[in-house]
């Protein structure tokens, strides 16, 4: 998923009112031992799963809604509103999925198969402008609908009866069941959408809920609200928490103070704090599937020179970046696709180990100097001036400054100017391939399959650098073709595609992100997912 929409970052301002609200969130309540207080780092802009665009939105949607499946603690799909995880038929292109009987929305409305049909058709309708509708690209007629050639009603999903759903794909998709656990595939209540109109999802009252919790107390602008147990949820007997109090806290010191005063049960840590608190019994670290990298803009003639790209990459000491600058538990990248997330079925090894290219991610100053000298000669230039774009987030600015220093100390003829701008503007500039030569970027996988990363760098994907390579495009397309049901063949093409990226230094992998917290040692059962939406509280409880 797009980098700035899935980052967990701190900004620099927090309203004084949060300090007052925090006093109401103590986990020491005598009245209810199963109430906790947590924080989010970004504002809650919407509860509409079709419009979610940051981590707070996704985390909330994932806990108040539910799809056919839920991702388990093993990061694999498990039955949610469906009775079981379906196996495809028709050479991998058709799924027949049965819903549980008696499903209800929190307001008592019946939840049936037609609600899924309505939701998915709504998501792919160009008028909806869904943030992540691309995850539905393999559903039959998606592309024709996207380009206005067919009606959303032609999408490959049908309700065969009130509890049976038929899904038809254009191509076999071995990762489809994982996708069906992603928020974009959650159902919405048609009655609520029609009643609320354009206000749908903009307040907690303009919503219907089908997940373990329902959200209350959010008017669309306030920075605190509650999740309360949904009494109409099909699996409510396994939901132990009755209340989750949520506050938006954007300043690291505020979060730490609230945790230490026992007014938060879970607090995100900044990089500096993570280093200081790593030995605390409350310290929790999870490696995410967030792949941080330096993007090259191939519209810049100088950066189309492979030797120059390699030279820049070889000046960067990834371990120093993660250990001394970021300090948040992130680790040096082994490649573009992160480690510990995907197993190669052909070898049984971690995919990142099978595709590891030491030269692509290891500093080598002497070779960097030689390659830069060669590149400048090939370009007929004495110097190269480059603009490195980053968001105005403090952590990312520090990363950009480190890279600027590493390049200019080793390659004095390569001049780098940093341009730090608001994240939203930076994202737009990346997508437009304008206003930058180098860019701080990252990509968080939506599901545990190499395709979610590799499709981004196709010429038809979110290729920020505007790089084009027909062989790469073909390899990635092969993994998502009508013959792609054979997962072992797919992974052979994935390995080849990753090798092309590293051999051509299309991006410079920098780090694999980590998610660090302080968590009440009595709070158990919180599920973390390295791909997709990270946090789930359905099984959480206070011991």
From TrEMBL:
Please provide the record's keywords in A-Z order: Peptide transport, Protein transport, Signal, Transport
Alphabetized GO MF terms: peptide transmembrane transporter activity
- Could you say which residues form the signal peptide? 1-22
Q: What compartments host this protein?
A: Cell envelope
Question: Is Transferase tagged as a keyword?
Answer: no
Alphabetical GO CC annotations of the entry are: ATP-binding cassette (ABC) transporter complex; cell envelope; periplasmic space
Which intervals of the chain form a coiled coil?
none
Is Mitochondrion included in the keywords of this UniProt record? no
**Domain Solute-binding protein family intervals:** 76-461
GO terms for biological process? peptide transport
What family does the database annotate? Belongs to the bacterial solute-binding protein 5 family.
Q: What is this protein called?
A: Dipeptide-binding protein DppE
The species this protein belongs to is Lentilactobacillus sunkii
Q: Which gene codes for it?
A: dppE_1
